[in-house]
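Appendix B: complex inputs.
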Amino acid sequence: MLRTRGYKYELRVNNKERKLLGKCASISRFTWNWGIANRKQRYRTQTGEARYTDAMKQHKELNHLKLTEFPWMYEVSKCVPQEALRDLDRSYQNFFTNHQQIKRKQTTRYIGLPIFKKKGKCKDSFRLTGAIHLFPKVKQVQLPRLSKLRLKERPNLPVSARILSATVSRTADRWYVALTVKEEQPDCNPNDGPMIALDKGLSVFAALSSGISIARPKFLLQQARKQGRLSKAHSRKQKGSNNKRKSTLRLARFYRRIANQRHNFLHQTSTYLAKNHSVIVTEDLYVKGLMQNKKLSKYWADLSHGMFQRFLAYKAPLYGSTVIEIDRWFPSSKLCSKCLYYHRHLTLADRAFHCPLCGLVLDRDQNAAFNVANYYTIYQFLLFPVAESSAETLNACGEAVRPASEQARIDESGRTAPRTVCNNCS
Ligand SMILES: [Zn+2]
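Resulting structure:
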């Protein structure tokens, strides 16, 4: 089976190359802004179908303007503006599709119109297609109109991989190239490890159903003082001065270091879980909602649970394991993992779960992890049975959308009663 995958490498660039890459990023940003302005003007001045355009039409229009108004665009590959206009077109398509979905009440997520990019405020990047070649032995990559650029490490692309595009981007003072490739996915044997469930949280990064907890790393919080010092120094530099430029770079390097530490932790944890377990059961955390709590948002942001979930999702098939996301409304923290008692009055301050019915005393996160494991092994068949004809455990939309708190009926004694209606049909 063919799959699309990205490989990212750091570039070892000299000052001349650095300048050229910066020029490409500037032209990409300029084209994006020109595209928005062009669409807005067209919408205001034209009527009927002529009010709308697409990437191809805009690229033709830009090619005419290149001769007279923007001759400096010839200094870089034609792919740079072309891909920027394609990206812009995709952004507009997403906006229009989302607008229709909101009208039909299919989603509550709002996607806005594309906005102008400002130098220094947006990420410097551009994409290239066409003649892209890798030279692993000499650690080089050849990009259109950029000749051969040196890489800091030997690329480890599979022989069967076909390069589709290369995205060059800058983080602080380092340049990276991300190659999007189409490669053959080798058939891997199903993972024969045990099943594991995890409850993601704040006090610990994740509590596992095997009884261990993954401690919460404090990447940014640990260096809050340094962050404050650098930010303060940066804010006191005169705008446009050399010192301001230097302090911007210092701050950007600081954030890059934090991001790298975070990525390293998330990659190691997700790889360990995917490599050693056949089934990984996790909660579908509503990270965006959690981030709205102003007091806790910085703690949630520092953990990056959303990114962790994405890493798990793409790594699991590589190691023959499966990731199951359970309903976000399943009350994993409030249920007793031993007797199913629903602890209605449990608050965030209660770090231990005391069951008044069976007397179970357990760490709150651990209890939740056991509940998530029980959900996969027992509850899903009792509360959310799947039609016999279907091998799928998810509904047609890919997830259970109705709150489990509504579905799981709770009797007077506090025990949850099994639900007999099929979730896929109701
Ligand atoms: Zn109990």
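Residues 330-367+380-417 form one domain.
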